[in-house]
Structure formats: C-alpha cells, structure tokens
Model the fold of this input.
Amino acid sequence: MRWIYVLPSGFACARTAPPTTVLGAAMQAMTILIHQRLLLDIASYAGAATLHVLPPPCPVTVAPSSFGHAGRLIRAAHDRAAAALDEPVLSPPQQAAAIGLHRH
Done:
C-alpha cells in the first residue's frame, strides 16, 4: 500500500471582513473551492493509498494574495505539521473532518 502525505494550503478561515475587490473575492472563492475539492479527493482516494493529511495553517486571517505574511504562515504550518506527525494517523473521514470547511 502506498503512503501519501498531503499538505493542504488551507484558506483564509478567520478574515474579519470579506474581500473588497473582485480579484480578492475570486481568490478567496478559489481557495475555498480547492479546499473543498481536497476533501472530496481524500474520500475518493482513501482506499487506494494510506493518506496522511497534515493540517493546514489555521486560523488564517490574511488574503491569499497577501505575501507579506509568508514567514508567519510558514512557521504556523510547520508547527501544526510537526505536531500532527507525532499523532496517530486518523481515518480518512476523521482527516476530512479535522480540516473541513469552517470559520472562526
């Protein structure tokens, strides 16, 4: 059986205000759609391989086009991934629930 490690990028789940531009709204929608597709892929490929879905950085308060926060987001993602690797592997439904769409 193959082992696949999935590193989701997440989405801006803790923004305090909606995007104010068309580009911002489109990017926010795209990140949510990509995350939603990932949840479907976890369910559909669970039987073909052992999936290790690491948690994305959360909460994310910045827009996906805001690269000024990259260092902070990378550190947050690293810390969450390192903690997740120390935990037992969750079943695919548990993994999907752990990274599911949410708000803060």
Notes: The helical segments are 22-45, 70-85, 92-98. The beta strands are 2-6, 49-53.
